[in-house]
Amino acid sequence: MSSVVDTTQIFKENLFAGKVLLCSGGGSGICRGMTEAMVRHGAKAVIISRSKDKLEKAAAEMRQATGGEIIAVAADVRKPEAVENAVQKTIEAFGRIDFLINGAAGNFLAPFQDLSYNAFRTVIEIDLLGTFNLTKAASEHLKKAKGSIINVSATLYYTGLPYQQHAGSAKAAIDALTKHWAVELGPHGVRVNGISPGPIGSTVGMKKLSGAFRRDENGGHSSIPLGRQGETMDIAQATVFLNSQGASWITGVTLVVDGGCWMTTAPVNYPQMVLNPPKLARL
Ligand code: COA
């Protein structure tokens, strides 16, 4: 069970009433929180990812927590026919798509020499091609609804973080897509933005990646300018804002939501970590 993600104390409760969200990766972590927040503001939601059981469980828990309408559709974002089917199921269930969140991602720490050809390609396919595939499949519906797209990105490539070239280069390309789509879809009334989350406690990403980032010796977060680790709520608030009319003249922007973390967080033991990389356990 994830913690409650409720932004209705900050933003108007019925902000997204009558609207529909399609979210890849919505079965867990940050994207589940983004979905829950949107539903609490009245949106109906379809969440997609590969694991049907995990998705069904997440949808049931969110329905119970919010009283909202959320359905699960299993689809691998790497497969165009699977995402087209997910879009079709969304239209059959709810009749429209106003919001798209491209959140499905895969990542792990891997030194260059341990990153196989297939490992690099796998992450590019999930993150970058997955984002392209789902957006292409949903784009006509988003145009019809004059909707909003949020691409979930990362700050990894801003500093060339070691062990992260696969995810970093995928996210760099996703940020490029955010701009290209903002330009091409803007005249159709569709806004396209990104969110780059910092370290968010208790997520799979945090568990998998935190070993590569410096924290102070006592395990605190004093190297983060705003002095704390992030929460899913931080990303949910940015999501609700970017999807709301409050952001009606904002497009092509990737909003970094990380407490200033990327500017001050250094890799652990650099350059030893690249000259003598440890054997990393697979999580
Ligand atoms: N380090 C190095 N290489 C790894 C790895 C790791 N920790 N995990 C997987 N790989 C490699 C595999 O060995 C394989 O390469 P190979 O064929 O040369 O051996 C390649 O990556 C594909 O792995 P596979 O497990 O077949 O792919 P998958 O599509 O089933 O899984 C992953 C994709 C690897 C990204 C998997 O971790 C995943 O599905 N993650 C989803 C959740 C997630 O990572 N979230 C992160 C949020 S930040």
Describe this structure as you would to a colleague:
A 7-stranded parallel sheet has the order 3-2-1-4-5-6-7, sandwiched between helices. The chain contains 8 helices and 7 strands; from the N terminus they run βαβαβαβαβαβααβα. The mean pLDDT is 95. Strand 2 (44-49), helix 2 (52-66) and strand 3 form a beta-alpha-beta unit. The two termini are 20 Å apart. The chain has a single domain (16-275), classed as NAD(P)-binding Rossmann-like Domain (Rossmann fold, 3-Layer(aba) Sandwich), CATH 3.40.50.720. It is globular. It has 283 residues and is of the alpha/beta class. Coenzyme A binds next to helix 4 and helix 6.
List the helices and strands and how they pair.
Elements: E1 20-24, H1 29-40, E2 44-49, H2 52-66, E3 70-74, H3 80-94, E4 99-102, H4 117-145, E5 148-152, H5 165-185, E6 191-197, H6 204-209, H7 232-243, E7 254-257, H8 272-275
Parallel strand pairs: 1-2, 1-4, 2-3, 4-5, 5-6, 6-7
Helix pairs in contact: 1-7, 3-4, 4-5
Beta content: 5-15%
Global geometry:
globular
CATH evolutionary superfamily: NAD(P)-binding Rossmann-like Domain
Class computed from helices, strands and strand pairing: alpha/beta
**Roughly what is the average pLDDT, rounded to an integer?**
95
- The ordered string of helix (H) and strand (E) elements is EHEHEHEHEHEHHEH
Number of strands: 7
The CATH topology turns out to be Rossmann fold
Helix proportion range: 40-55%
CATH class placement: Alpha Beta
